[in-house]
């Protein structure tokens, strides 16, 4: 064999053949990936440890030819490579100022977040996806229970539960977003399945109650209502009866906004300083949001709760300066700090908006590349909804809901600029997207 290269090559192929790899090794990446949704509800280090285990399982599972074929055939491959290429070109062609030198490579890495989805998509379609959804639902129930335990002052303030006890920025926001996505997916499952119907309804209300009353994030609540709207649109029939509910909701929303603008301002808009019942927190956040928008539009001073409007206004001015090529990777923070001297938002590290961040740093090409990925996700969901296979049609709504949630979340948070958000969404995207091919 040593003197026969062809024979040696044949022996090497046989040694890595799927038939000679034990079943437990072949199934290891799927088993790890289906458990990763549980890690999202705890400190980010646990999530990264789970991802590392997945990569190890992927390496020892073998059958690389099939996995590479799965990656090459995914419809998202080209849009993902386009975004990465744009970031490389912008990184090479724009001038780097001294303020961005230390932040350039971390900023560049954040624009490659979607690349990290491809190893997950190397797995094929299988029963692991259905199990992953169940684990995600169970994890949402556990997280809701932890929120309730904290409301009853029963949760210890340690590293494992700190994001439930204290408001910790992006991690606390992510917990709310995960509950919203889980609730939307539960609503979809409720429509599909008739078994244990009352139990499913009770669990859905339990998660929604924790989301709205205890999670302390407005964006997540908006995500859930958006996904409810998708469910209504899926079964929408043009009739006066079908139009009555949306019209009633619009009128009620308008009336509520008018009422909120005339209310006296709350003593504080900071939910960390407001020691009130959960339902009062909802009222405070709603009233403060509406009044801050009014005050900003009329040129009056706003407090820290309304600083996003301030950030958006200054960032739009930055985009107008270099709309086509952008200011370069990791350039937003130093440029913003120069323009926001004396403002409460001067210490912000992102504009809390993916669309504005991509337009500021990568220009029009970067913004269109990001939107192109999300449009492709919606297109894949639409094509899946027309499939003859029931399981594929069922996953279509999961993908549509998740994509809509990402598009909405990107309006109020830099969900792809932060690894806490980005990797969580890549793990969830793998559940409906794995096994989808361009040819199908």
From TrEMBL:
<feature type="transmembrane region" description="Helical">
    <location>
        <begin position="396"/>
        <end position="414"/>
    </location>
</feature>
<feature type="transmembrane region" description="Helical">
    <location>
        <begin position="355"/>
        <end position="375"/>
    </location>
</feature>
<keyword id="KW-0436">Ligase</keyword>
<feature type="transmembrane region" description="Helical">
    <location>
        <begin position="74"/>
        <end position="92"/>
    </location>
</feature>
<feature type="domain" description="O-antigen ligase-related">
    <location>
        <begin position="206"/>
        <end position="371"/>
    </location>
</feature>
<keyword id="KW-0812">Transmembrane</keyword>
<dbReference type="Pfam" id="PF04932">
    <property type="entry name" value="Wzy_C"/>
</dbReference>
<keyword id="KW-0472">Membrane</keyword>
<dbReference type="GO" id="GO:0016874">
    <property type="term" value="F:ligase activity"/>
</dbReference>
<keyword id="KW-1133">Transmembrane helix</keyword>
<feature type="transmembrane region" description="Helical">
    <location>
        <begin position="104"/>
        <end position="123"/>
    </location>
</feature>
<feature type="transmembrane region" description="Helical">
    <location>
        <begin position="40"/>
        <end position="62"/>
    </location>
</feature>
<dbReference type="InterPro" id="IPR051533">
    <property type="entry name" value="WaaL-like"/>
</dbReference>
<protein>
    <submittedName>
        <fullName>O-antigen ligase family protein</fullName>
    </submittedName>
</protein>
<dbReference type="GO" id="GO:0016020">
    <property type="term" value="C:membrane"/>
</dbReference>
<feature type="transmembrane region" description="Helical">
    <location>
        <begin position="135"/>
        <end position="155"/>
    </location>
</feature>
<feature type="transmembrane region" description="Helical">
    <location>
        <begin position="198"/>
        <end position="214"/>
    </location>
</feature>
<feature type="transmembrane region" description="Helical">
    <location>
        <begin position="420"/>
        <end position="436"/>
    </location>
</feature>
<feature type="transmembrane region" description="Helical">
    <location>
        <begin position="167"/>
        <end position="186"/>
    </location>
</feature>
<dbReference type="InterPro" id="IPR007016">
    <property type="entry name" value="O-antigen_ligase-rel_domated"/>
</dbReference>
